[in-house]
Write a structure and sequence with these properties.
This protein is of the alpha+beta class and 341 residues long. 47% of the residues lie in helices and 12% in strands. The strands form three sheets. Strands 1-2-3-5-4 form a five-stranded antiparallel β-sheet, with helices on one face. β7 and β8 form a beta hairpin. α4 runs antiparallel to α5.
Length: 341
């Protein structure tokens, strides 16, 4: 969520002159993304003020990743160095970076056509392939912890507590969604052991890869943004999640299995997957979505946040679809790839 900025326009002008020797005569606040963004000098530069939760290590990692990917011809932002040769500045406790403006536009979730969907899969594969040679120890995100009985029990209690806070007559859809999520999570906890998750393919990856991180120009990806969440994790979570956010056929929270197979096949031109990856891909995503109350909690606390509520509705529709079709999705994937395994 966007935090209140620590800057005035005059302070931005001073920081740019002092640290970059760049004269700024125009500052415009941009209303996009989860950080505070400013357009400088009529979109010649973009200043990004990271949230207070980010550490210098995370930002240094992002800069190193961006520079590494650029060497492999992956379209990423170009950061501007300070007079001291650094890529970031700390101002009033916030980390600030400046990048050259990228001419293009952003799009909403689930508006991608078939070609754009496959382009997303290709770039994800290329990014993960490139990051194999990254000389940097990224943090680990062990999603197998999501699949433990302990984690599921904790999430069930969290969802029950949220359900207890609401009026079922005032929030009938939220009440139904929370009830359904609790039921699905209990079923998975009682019926799936996830014994072989240790065989999942774990690699360096973006960590938050989706169409929301793309800048387009003339219908094609011009740049891929925001590598601050980059980590080492089971890559199939990133594959299925990124598909669900771009395909226009998935807009109502329904996985188009044939489209998804094409997405995975395009990705595996660059990075191979094993049978455990294919078996558990839909379940890993399903459990992660079921365990989250994001969107509902924020709306219940502040009913002006209708966009977050719609996002929560979308993710619960995805849960229902995955719950009903996870076996079919996994079986189709395994059958399609069995000749390569």
């Amino acid at each position: 969520m966007i935090e209140k900025t620590v800057f005035t326009n005059e302070e931005i002008i001073d920081v740019m002159k002092t640290n970059y020797n760049i004269a700024v005569d125009h500052v415009e606040k941009l209303n996009q993304g989860s950080a505070n963004l400013y357009s400088l000098n009529g979109n010649k530069y973009i200043l990004k003020e990271f949230q207070s939760t980010y550490t210098m290590r995370e930002i240094d990692n992002e800069i190193a990743i961006i520079n590494h990917l650029r060497e492999d011809n992956i379209p990423v932002p170009e950061y501007v160095k300070t007079l001291n040769g650094d890529y970031s500045v700390i101002y009033k406790g916030r980390i600030v970076i400046v990048q050259r403006y990228i001419d293009g536009y952003t799009v909403k979730s689930n508006t991608g056509n078939f070609i754009q969907m496959l382009e997303s899969a290709e770039y994800l594969g290329r990014i993960i392939q490139s990051l194999k040679t990254l000389n940097l120890d990224l943090p680990s995100n062990d999603v197998s912890t999501w699949l433990s009985r302990e984690a599921m029990n904790e999430s069930i209690e969290k969802l029950k507590n949220l359900f207890a806070k609401i009026s079922k007559t005032k929030y009938p859809q939220i009440a139904k969604d929370l009830t359904d999520k609790i039921f699905m999570l209990k079923y998975i906890k009682d019926n799936f052991a996830f014994k072989d998750v240790g065989e999942l393919t774990i690699m360096n990856t973006h960590g938050d890869y989706s169409v929301l991180q793309f800048i387009y120009k003339e219908g094609k990806i011009k740049a891929i943004l925001d590598f601050a969440s980059a980590c080492k994790m089971p890559i199939v979570w990133e594959v299925i999640r990124s598909y669900s956010y771009i395909d226009k056929n998935a807009k109502e929270g329904k996985i188009d299995i044939q489209h998804f197979v094409k997405y995975v096949k395009t990705f595996t031109k660059y990075v191979p997957l094993n049978s455990t990856d294919l078996k558990y891909m839909p379940y890993i995503y399903l459990v992660q979505l079921l365990e989250s109350s994001f969107g509902y909690k924020q709306y219940i606390d502040d009913d002006s946040k209708k966009n977050l509520l719609e996002f929560a509705y979308f993710r619960t529709r995805l849960c229902r679809n995955l719950f009903e079709n996870a076996d079919e999705i996994a079986n189709v994937l395994i059958k399609e790839f069995e000749r390569c395994l």
